[in-house]
Known about the structure:
Layout: E1 2-3, E2 11-12, E3 15-18, E4 23-29, H1 36-40, E5 46-50, E6 54-60, E7 72-82, H2 93-103, E8 109-112, E9 117-122, H3 126-135, E10 139-142
Parallel strand pairs: 3-10
Antiparallel strand pairs: 1-2, 3-7, 4-6, 4-7, 5-6, 7-9, 8-9
Protein name: Amino acidbinding ACT domain containing protein
Domain A9CJY8-like N-terminal: 24-67
Pfam families: A9CJY8-like_N, ACT_7
Amino acid sequence: MLHASSAATPQRSFELVVGASDLAVVQLPSSSTVPQWALSGDKSFLSMTYTKEELSLVVNQASIPKDFSEGKVEGGWRALKVAGPLDFELVGILASLAVPLARSGVSIFAVSTYNTDYVLVKASLLDRAARTLREHGHEITYEGEKPDQPHW
């Protein structure tokens, strides 16, 4: 969907699906290998990024061992998946989500895959994020929810 708010800055609206699981962002030293618990646990969401500075993982929070101490963990995230697949030529997808969320005081952590984009928001701010995105023309559904089952 494309809504022309002005010729110079078209407003895109997207369908977003809220994932059912809490996620965590994990930082490990760049010399680390991917922990076995990340590879053998619930892989409904697993993202890995290696850089010179770090190994970052986004995993289902329940997959992290209770005694994990090898790195930093920032838990309590929920993923809003942009329904895709998305064309690589599309521009402004993240901006159409990030700008209204920033204006309503919701910080994001973005993850992109070949098919689509994910915007992670803190679970404590999920209702505010969903309300804000709906107000900006985006459609929000919840994973596992029947089409006739409203969230609120």
